[in-house]
Amino acid sequence: MSAEPDVIRKCTWPVCLVGLFVTGILSLDCSLLDVHLRRVTWQNLSLLSRMSKSFPIECLRESKAFELPQEILSHTQPLTRDIKEAFYEMSRQAFHIFIQDTFKSTWEEKHLRQVQFGLDQQLQYLEQCLEEEEEENEDMREMAEDEWTQSGAPVPQLSNLELRRYFNRIDRFLKDKKYSHCAWEIVRVEIRRCFYFFHKFTALLRRK
After folding, report:
1. pLDDT value of residue 16
2. Whole-number Å distance between alpha carbons of 184 and 19
3. What is the pTM assigned to this prediction?
């Protein structure tokens, strides 16, 4: 796994201390991963809704289609590890967006800090579970792919590359708009939409 989140976490430890009073920490039991992801993703959805009182009408003319990957929108049933890796990539990229020190004062800072903490906690959990899975079940992915192949159905996959491109478009939009208030409001609504579709994937993890 990338060391980047660890470096970022050291810089945001005070943020984590604030979040501890709001977000309960589950023990890192990977059998409860779907519960944790569902809880934190829903919490972040709610926080993003409360960060701003309402979407400014004057920002509508600046709205942009960021093109969330079709695999996310279709809500198909990809392999379990693909879902976990996609959650990891989404959490890492969203964390990067929300730690930028360019926010407007109109946002509720306490909600922003809680979103940062929730994503950071999610990254820690996913890192551990993906590493454990890689060590203990190296052949599981091949077996699952063989089952899909024998059934004659294509193996559905979630592309982390497409997710990175999606978040790069969001990041570039913020830079092009010089991190304006409208740009951040548009991004807040877009990432909330992204979280909504990822929240649906937690049901697939529960059924695996």
Report:
1. 47
2. 22
3. 0.73
